[in-house]
């Protein structure tokens, strides 16, 4: 079987590898099912993956703020 790739690897790998924006590495993956129309609208975005990350981050922050508010309200009652 013939060998594939360059012997010794790519010496410029650092120049070509994926680097994540932000403080944390993007190592986890999720899978969700959406309709064709939603997927088509997402693909119209310049960077739909980053758009999804931001939407999830905003929803999580909103949920966290709501939980803190409910906790404060229950303690004051």
Question: Overview of this structure, please?
Answer:
This protein is mainly alpha-helical. The chain has helices at residues 13-16, 36-43, 48-76. It contains three helices and no strands. The termini are far apart. 0% of the residues are buried.
**Unreliable residue runs:** none
Structural class category: mainly alpha
Mean pLDDT: 86
Shape: elongated
- What's the gyration radius in Å? 21 Å
Helix content: 40-55%
Percent strand equals: under 5%
- Number of structural units classed as domains: 1
Q: Largest sheet at a glance?
A: none
Number of helices: 3
Helices and strands, in N-to-C order?
HHH
Task: Note the gap between the termini.
Answer: 74 Å
Tell how many strands the DSSP assignment holds: 0
Provide the fold topology.
Layout: H1 13-16, H2 36-43, H3 48-76
How would you sum up this structure in a few lines?
With 77 residues, the chain is mainly α. The chain has three helices and no strands.
Defining traits:
single chain, 3 helices, 77 residues, mainly alpha
């Amino acid at each position: 079987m013939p060998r594939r790739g360059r012997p010794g690897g790519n010496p410029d790998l650092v120049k070509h590898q994926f680097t994540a924006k932000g403080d944390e590495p993007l190592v986890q993956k999720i899978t969700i099912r959406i309709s064709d129309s939603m997927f088509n609208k997402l693909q119209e975005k310049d960077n739909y993956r980053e758009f999804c990350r931001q939407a999830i981050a905003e929803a999580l922050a909103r949920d966290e703020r709501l939980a803190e508010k409910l906790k404060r309200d229950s303690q004051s009652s």
